[in-house]
Amino acid sequence: MKKILLPLVALLTAPAAIAETEVVTIVDHITSGTSNVINQPEELLKRLLPVEGVEEESKEEIARPVNGRMAGFRVQVFSDNNARTAKNEARSKQRIISSRFPQYQTYVMYTSPYWRLKVGDFRTQQDANAAADELRRAFPAYSKEIRVVRDRVTVHE
């Protein structure tokens, strides 16, 4: 009887105990009639203000990276998730392609669980397709795996 009575009493008194406690949130504490002071350095204020006298042409130049990374295209030559052989196969194909096409930068990348070999930094899909066709002609054995993919590319001018 005691085993049943004790949990029953605890269950009946728990809601009353919870209702008596006052819940104070951080927002209530911050806005409870006190004043908040924010100290802001003048240098930060200068950086937050809009720049005056900037023409539209110069804004467009800022938006286009000259040397950096931007959205573009690469030619993916290899992709495999075999943990034992994929890394070595990607590096082997990288050496072969780099020796035949030194004008294209090659990238071996690991995105779990895939090892991938990507070639080139192309701004347009047409340029990437032309390079993919060139790679297919040079390496017919790789032609089933060669495809153009979107990627962040390195831009040099």
Automatic annotation (TrEMBL):
Gene3D superfamilies: Sporulation related repeat. Residues 67-149 form the SPOR domain. Pfam families: SPOR. SUPFAM superfamilies: Sporulation related repeat. It comes from the Bacteria. Residues 1-19 form the signal peptide. GO terms for molecular function: peptidoglycan binding. PROSITE patterns: SPOR. Keywords: Signal. This is SPOR domain-containing protein. It comes from Duncaniella muris. The lineage of its organism: Bacteria, Pseudomonadati, Bacteroidota, Bacteroidia, Bacteroidales.
